[in-house]
Design brief:
heterodimer, A: 383 residues, alpha+beta, five-stranded mixed sheet, elongated, B: 149 residues, mainly alpha, 6 helices, flat
Chain lengths: 383, 149
């Protein structure tokens, strides 16, 4: 019974394998695309790890406030590289697809282990690309938390990639360094790789304008335009979604400075407006890959802390009027509170903040991920 | 398979295996957020969907193209179809307006008319590949003429 079944599988596998007649299912094409994937995946992994580090800093890590646009660059790169990887990944999988039907499936334990590692490598790679693309589109067709699933799947996938690179290093190098002479099929290969490169270019040009301002008009497939939204730039969470209203910023509104301070402070919005205001041009850089620069005007956090008599270089928790949600508060680390451009902004681009941008008061600091630029600020708690 | 199973592979296996183990530990440790069961279904499901649906469809489309389109038009035709498919994949969530449906009051999410936007991208792709095809065909003809002379 079992033997008969295996015979059928073997015959089918051989029959399917013989159908792949294209010369492009070859080692050289696989090696060159594999190089591309190795590079793009590494960029995504490193920038993703960086994003995770700045969003949830462990005790040993201090988020650097300078350069102010660093997160905008690293996260823009993460998303752009992830999108560029999609055609390379699919092309590579098509090139090596016939190997799925190789019979016998493995000739040694080492081959079995190598092939087993392809399961998390391919499944993980496809999952990371799909979940990342869905997340930048605010689409969540799954029950788990995106951030955690994407993060841990990346570790599993890069582990599988290390195993795969270990097995393929020699053959890939020999092709990339052209120690193996290109064969007769190289014309077809050039056209195919050129097509993959063109696909990478098309999806990049059609999306990267969500963070590279001058290309914004070309961002036809991007879910965001850096110049579209209230006051000319996008919003992640609206006031309505956060259950904050204009009345919350009215007569009853107070900004309090409490915690480890010499004297607790409390201000109305009018009192804040009458203070010494500072202007800074800083980007909002969202984890989802869009970014936009704006001119912010407001009170320096360090001035408020000095007025309250807080210790120099304290950490401060910024609390929002928003009653729930993971980002209703955020922490300013010492280097950030010292920075003169870390503001509680009252205005953007010369106008009072739109409620969706955090009216009556929002935090804006250099080199902070967008979700940590807390909106609708009502309290500073010195830690 | 032309793989290297020497010392390099064994070292990579130890390091890669440890990194994978760390990832699996992370998934299990943060189970409330990661839902390990359904994450497993999505990752293995991605393998299966690719191997059983995407790849066969791509192979059949490629086979049809080689049957229907003669050289020297074949490579440009293949390019036009492949790039279009990738553009549709990347534009799909916007085209379907998934994000906007989730946050209907946020007009800055997926703000464009994406059928027009995607149509424009596809038009550019087909125009570009048409130019390439024309250049290819013209070049072949002039080569043939040169050969006949």
């Amino acid at each position: 019974m079992v033997r008969a079944a295996i015979d059928v599988i073997e015959k089918t596998a051989h029959a399917v394998e013989r159908r792949f007649t294209s010369k492009l299912h070859d080692e050289r094409t696989a090696a060159l695309l594999g190089m591309g994937l190795g590079i793009t995946f590494t960029i995504c992994f490193v920038t993703g790890l960086w994003s995770h580090l700045v969003q949830t800093p462990p005790s040993w890590f201090s988020r650097p406030p300078r350069p102010a646009g660093l997160y905008r660059v690293t996260q823009g790169l993460h998303i752009a590289t992830g999108i560029a990887m999609i055609p390379i990944l699919l092309a590579k999988l098509w090139v090596v697809y016939p190997k799925l039907f190789a019979w016998p499936p493995f000739k040694s334990a080492a081959v079995a282990v190598e092939r087993l590692a392809l399961l998390p490598l391919i499944g993980g790679g496809l999952f990371l690309a799909f979940s990342g693309l869905a997340n930048v589109n605010l689409w969540y067709p799954w029950p788990f938390g995106f951030k955690e699933a994407h993060y841990w799947a990346a570790w599993i996938t890069i582990g599988a990639l290390i195993v795969h690179v270990g097995a393929k290093w020699t053959v890939t190098r020999s092709h990339v360094a052209r120690r193996v002479p290109p064969d007769a099929g190289s014309g077809d290969r050039r056209a195919f790789l050129g097509t993959v490169a063109a696909a990478v270019s098309v999806v990049t040009v059609a999306t990267v304008g969500q963070t590279v301002g001058p290309l914004r008009k070309l961002a036809l497939l991007a879910p965001r335009r850096p110049d579209v939204g209230p006051q000319g730039f996008p919003v992640n969470r609206t006031a309505r979604a956060a259950r904050v209203t204009v009345e919350d910023g009215g007569a009853t509104y107070r900004l309090t400075v409490t915690g480890r301070v010499a004297r607790e402070l409390s201000f109305s919005r009018a009192e804040l407006t009458g203070m010494d205001l500072h202007q800074a041009r800083l980007p909002i850089a969202c984890v989802q890959g869009w970014s936009a620069s704006a001119n912010w005007r407001g009170v320096r956090v360090r001035d408020l802390l000095a007025m309250a008599g807080a210790a120099e270089g304290a950490s401060v928790r910024i609390v929002s009027l928003q009653e729930s949600g993971a980002f209703r508060s955020s922490v300013l680390q010492p280097d950030e509170t010292r920075d003169g451009d870390t503001l509680l902004a009252l205005e953007v681009n010369g106008e009072p903040l739109h409620i969706d941008h955090g009216y009556p008061l929002r935090l804006i600091g250099p080199n902070r991920p967008g979700v940590l630029q807390t909106k609708w600020v009502t309290g500073l708690v010195v830690e | 398979m032309n793989s290297d199973h020497g010392a390099r592979f064994r070292i990579a296996l130890v390091i890669g295996g440890a990194v994978m183990a760390y990832g699996i530990w992370g998934v299990l440790d943060d189970a409330r957020a990661t839902h390990p069961g359904s994450l497993f279904v999505y990752v293995v499901g991605a393998d299966l969907v690719h191997d059983l649906v995407i790849a066969p469809v791509v192979c059949i489309v490629g086979w049809l193209l080689t049957r229907v389109v003669p050289e020297p038009w074949r490579s440009p035709a293949r390019a036009a179809v492949l790039i279009s498919a990738i553009a549709v994949v990347v534009g799909w969530p916007s085209l379907r307006g998934y994000g906007r449906a989730r946050v209907p009051d946020n007009a800055s999410v997926q703000p464009l008319d994406y059928s027009t936007a995607l149509g424009t991208v596809l038009a550019v792709v087909w125009l570009g590949t048409a130019v390439w095809a024309t250049v290819r065909v013209t070049r072949r003809r002039s080569n043939e003429d040169a050969g006949n002379a």
